[in-house]
Amino acid sequence: MKYWVSLHQQVLLLFFVLLPAFLFAEEPPLLKLRSSRHPEFVRIVLEGPETVILKGTVTQKGKDISVNFQDSKFSLQDVELPFPYNTVKNSVVFSPGEFKKFKSAFLQSPARLVIDVYQELKAEEVKAITPAKPLKTKTIIIDPGHGGHEYGLIMGSYREKDVVLDIAKTLRTLAGKGSTRCFLTRSGDQFMSLGERADFSNNKKGEIFLSLHIGKHKDIVIYTPVITEPAPAGVEPPGQAGFLAKTLAFKNAMLKAIREDLGSDMVSVKPLPYSILSGIEAAALIIELPSFKDVSYNSDFKRELSNTILKGIYMYEVVTAN
Fold first, then answer.
1. Residue 129 has pLDDT above 80, yes or no
2. Sheet holding 42-47: strands in order across?
3. Which residues contact 60 (CB under 8 A, 6 or more apart)?
4. Are residues 183 and 74 in the same domain?
5. Residue 320 clears pLDDT 50, i.e. is over it
6. Are residues 39 and 141 in the same domain?
7. Are 102 and 43 in contact (CB under 8 A)?
8. Average per-residue pLDDT for the chain
């Protein structure tokens, strides 16, 4: 016996066969997009799943910069950039207009494709981007962690004591201009106790103290001091006790700078009792940078970190100006 299926029944059958595909189809991953202006370039950051980001191929087409993700489907976060952009099939096309060159690099944890576009900026644009120089802060103390027989974390050719010293020296060059004095607690590979570092900062009458370390985590951790012993009545509070308000403002400024430059999920804040910070008579923080496993500490990334920290110092000056 033959059974004939009507056209109406065929349509219904097809509907119920295809319905699960529509209901359970995975949405394409979202790529986050952000940008930041620097004196010499505009930085574009595309962030998303590693399986998509690592497929990104950056090419120049006339006055456009195209990022092709091959066969990967994605959705793109809609944000405002300094210049137009649009998606074309599996590509994102940026249209910055006239530019001299661009550089691109992949960063991990989270996976990011970073593109620096070197534009021909007008003098007034450069002035608007470049923070006022010199800094208003008179004395800044940068504390590269470890040194001497204390190597800190080690992975391959990386040693924590060497990497944080490199970043500290770059930061000293950037910040120590005009009348601002920027001192390093150690300028070479020597051991210093925590007490010696605190005494160095206080004797120099530092207004900002920043200790640099590298951790075992994917993000940047900002550590803040915790006062465990109140000062006796009638006695001037020692160490950090009289500077907590300034330290809080410094923390908020540094947090904002890192979020803007590196992403909101690239930084966290933790209190740290019984640390060197408690004895520092200044706005004081410890910044623990991502692990050697999660980022590559090449010269470009170390320079990027230095610029971001400097940006945090400028932001701190702005909020404490009044």
1. no
2. 75-76, 30-37, 42-47, 112-119, 99-107
3. 66, 102
4. no
5. yes
6. no
7. no
8. 85
